[in-house]
Write a structure and sequence with these properties.
The protein is mainly α. It is built from 17 helices and no strands. Helix 8 packs parallel to helix 17. Keywords: Ligase, Membrane, Transmembrane, Transmembrane helix.
Length: 393
């Protein structure tokens, strides 16, 4: 069982089909391992109402607002997200730690593949294609999770009570992963996560404001260096800023940044018009298609606004948005509260922020390519209560 959790952690950086296969294997193992059903149930039970309420509200919306073009797809993803969280929350301490080690091993493999490809062009194999070429959200996910691995390694390397032989490998891993993301990623989402999560690490790890201030200054200096030296970071953000200026002046959709802003406007409009029950589960596409019919037909088939918060509020109403936020806040509060005694809880807190940020600019709750590993690892690392692995000053 524990080794299945480690394998699934490693598969974070593999093609989504392999991740699904590993998840199915872990689920079957959980169901067949009757010996540990009771402790798993005791660990999972307090979370069931928070995990289940968004699904129940979606069923109410479906019953009152009718069936829409993408209702079946939305319902499938709601069940999938609930299942991912339940699987993660059911893992026991050893399985949680091996899931972390699997994630870190996968991050080392991904970083090595990306760096090796810079020196010697690797063959176009499916197992690492998303690491080396831009393939939509699959590529973004690899760099986002590599940024998470960098912050998690920094967090683990800053634990009190470690000697340098145990601390140094974590800090070197953090530097390696961060360098790869800064130098090679074209995902703005990954860059945001990379720059923000170290601040979370400092806030969690140190209670003194002087230490936090010094750490923040070091991070700002590092961020400035990355901004100047990265071949992808500055051009991508500058291009987005210029595109938004053009959109504000002319109203013309010129690229991904302006299209996303236009979709945010439409989603906000739908949520404002139907705040209680929303426009209906799966109603985004027909409404967006009608909006774009005359304005820009080439953009009419985008099936989500690339903002899961707005999509939830639009299709299922403000109560659904609040239920989703309550679930994430509960996971965030729980992980922050236990981070002093459980190093894995600190990693979970980093993933809470990662999901929050990613849901603002993409669709981790709807797109398994993006959110599958992110969500089950978040739940797995948040599942524990106490651990003797970490000591604090």
């Amino acid at each position: 069982m524990a080794y299945l959790a480690a394998a699934l952690g490693f598969l974070t950086f593999m093609p989504i089909g392999l991740a699904y296969l590993g998840l199915l294997g872990l689920l079957l193992a959980l169901l067949l391992n009757k010996t540990h059903w009771q402790p798993r149930w005791q660990q999972l039970r307090p979370w069931l109402w928070l995990v289940g309420l968004p699904l129940l509200w979606a069923m109410l919306v479906l019953a009152t607002q009718g069936w829409h073009e993408d209702s079946a797809t939305r319902l499938f993803h709601l069940v999938r997200v609930a299942l991912l969280l339940c699987i993660g929350l059911a893992l026991l301490p050893r399985e949680r730690w091996l899931a972390l080690y699997g994630l870190m091993a996968g991050a080392v493999f991904a970083a090595a593949v990306m760096l090796l490809n810079q020196v010697w062009a690797l063959p176009d194999w499916a197992i690492w294609r998303a690491m080396l070429t831009v393939t939509g959200n699959s590529s973004s996910q690899k760099f986002i999770m590599l940024a998470v691995a960098a912050a998690a390694a920094l967090w683990l390397g800053l634990q009190a009570g470690l000697d340098w032989r145990r601390r140094l490998p974590w800090l070197l891993a953090a530097a390696l992963f961060a360098t790869v993301v800064a130098a090679l990623s074209i995902s703005r989402n990954a860059h945001l996560v990379l720059l923000f999560l170290p601040c979370v690490v400092l806030a969690l790890r140190y209670r003194g404001w002087r230490v936090r201030a010094v750490g923040l200054l070091l991070l700002l200096a590092g961020a400035a260096a990355v901004w100047q030296l990265s071949p992808t970071l500055q051009p991508r953000f500058e291009a987005a800023a210029q595109e938004m200026q053009h959109f504000a002046a002319t109203g013309e959709l010129g690229g991904s940044a302006s299209v996303r802003w236009r979709m945010y406007q439409r989603a906000w409009q739908g949520m404002s018009e139907q705040p209680l029950l929303g426009t209906g589960l799966g109603s985004w596409l027909p409404l967006w298609r009608a909006e774009m019919a005359d304005e820009n037909p080439a953009m009419a088939e985008i099936n989500n606004p690339h903002n899961d918060w707005l999509l939830t509020g639009m299709e299922k109403g403000v109560p659904a948005l609040l239920l989703l936020l309550a679930l994430l806040l509960a996971l965030g509060w729980h992980s922050a509260r236990h981070s002093r005694g459980d190093a894995l809880a600190g990693v979970a807190h980093l993933l809470v922020w990662t999901v929050f940020i990613t849901a603002l600019v993409n669709a981790p709750l709807r797109d398994a390519n993006l959110g599958l590993s992110m969500l089950w690892l978040l739940a797995a690392f948040a599942a524990g209560q106490r651990s003797s692995e970490a000591k604090w000053d």
